[in-house]
Amino acid sequence: MRLSPASRFRGRFTLPGDKSLSHRLAILGALAEGETRIGNFSTAADCNSTLRCLKELGVEVRGSGRAVDVEGLGPAGLRGASGSLDVGNSGSTIRMLAGVLAGRPFRSVLTGDASIRRRPMERVAEPLRAMGAAVTTRDGAPPVTIEGGALRGITWRLPVASAQVKTAVLLAGLQADGITAVTEPSQSRDHTERLLPAFGVPLERSGTTVSLRGGTRLTPLTMEVPGDVSSAAFLVVAALILPDSWIHVENVLLNPARTAFIAVLRKMGGHVETGVRREEPEPVGWIEARTSRLRGVSVGAETVPALIDEVPALAVAATRAEGTFTVSGAGELRVKESDRIAALAEGLRAMGARVEERPDGLAIDGGLPLRGARVRAHGDHRIAMALSVAALTARGDSHVEDAECASVSFPEFYAFLERGIAGDRGRRG
Ligand code: S3P
After folding, report:
1. Which of 17, 209, 320, 392 could be stapled to 42 by a disulfide with Cβ–Cβ 3.0 to 4.6 Å?
2. Does the CB atom of residue 380 touch ligand 1 within 6 A?
3. d(CA 218, CA 221)
């Protein structure tokens, strides 16, 4: 993808449905008894991987565009797939489905693309084994083979906050005897906890512990998915760092476990406003952002889980800020779709930024002008989008190799960038 410098970024945007919510709605819909109707389903390739795997497990999924209906027959309605289940690039799909399949009395093999086959799976295999499933990994990574069956509830403490692992244990817990309780060292996104009660499953939350009793039947629901706030982050940063810019994003997810990047951008001096329009089962509203003078700040381990997917966008903002921006306690970034710490350091340095790579984070000295460069996305959608936004502020053209991987979460990204660069013909506000 060739990107030229942009003089401004403006527009009103509504985004396809949130990826994290779409995965969960499809999976919980498959476990419910009856028809779950999902509107504004994510267009992300990752969510399509979830739908494809569910179909291979015998679930009837009807879809036209962003309207997806899932005909659930309860957990017992799932059938063993004829071959291995291919999750593509989707870590959420492989980890969450592992939790579902741990409770099913058949053998499943879960695998995916080259990036997935490097990602750590013991973090999900261990609790599922403790619940009674036979789970094997290849040196800790996929393929993951699961011989599921009768499960017993467990009390499990996650060493690292992870919404995917927490969700896997809870999905297994739904099928287990007795109570399953999961505790995280700090709160990761809580969509599963918000959606389960909406599907009729009572659960208890206390601090960072969530527990439920197995055996409750899930009742289907109808839900419109709010826009993906992690996709919005790239547009927000573009509006902050380009001159004469302003955006409004309508109907976007505003769950506090996902919006910590907005608080950080504000602390950096960013003019970002939000308003909540409705609260249940997830807060939904709008975001506005406009050109701002930014300064570097420090982001510590306690905030990282609530902005883990937004570090690439924040790193781009940091290159345009005065002073030093640091993020620490973010070692998890090294085991995402790529090693995001190394990939960001490499790409932003190639564009002239001063970036220090640390074992668990980054330090970025902002304010240096960026220059166009040839940079690599490393097959990672969020790296492709971050470097593309950085390229808009560079002097000279840039090439982002492998940029099409943006479609893993945000297939419309480059079209939206073009729209923002062309500018809003409407008036501000
Ligand atoms: C996700 C959880 C996060 C996040 C991922 C989506 C989810 O991963 O990085 O993009 O939908 O549960 P972890 O579970 O590793 O924190």
Report:
1. 17
2. no
3. 9
In this structure, are 84 and 231 located in the same domain?
no
Tens digit of pLDDT for each residue in 314-352? 999 999 999 999 999 999 999 999 999 999 999 999 999
Domain of 360, in residue numbers: 2-16+226-422
Tell me the whole-structure pTM to 2 decimals: 0.97
DSSP per residue over 80-121, as a string?
--SS-EE-TT-HHHHHHHHHHHTTSSSEEEEE-STTGGGS--
Tokens in use for 415? Answer: 């079209």
Q: Is the peptide bond before 143 cis (omega within 30 degrees of 0)?
A: yes
Asked if residue 298 and residue 283 are part of one domain, the reply reads yes
* Any domain includes 427: no
| Closest ligand 1 atom to Cα of 332 | 15
Regarding whether 252 and 173 lie in a shared domain, the answer is no
Regarding the beta carbon of 162 and ligand 1, being less than 6 Å apart is answered yes
CA angle centred on 14, ends 12 and 16, rounded to 5°: 155
Hunting for tokens 């999924």 — which residue is that?
Answer: 61
Contact 340, 369 (CB under 8 A): no
Q: Which tokens is 419 given?
A: 């729209």
What does the pLDDT look like over 361-396, one tens digit per residue? 999 999 899 999 999 999 999 999 999 999 999 999
In a domain, 211, yes or no: yes
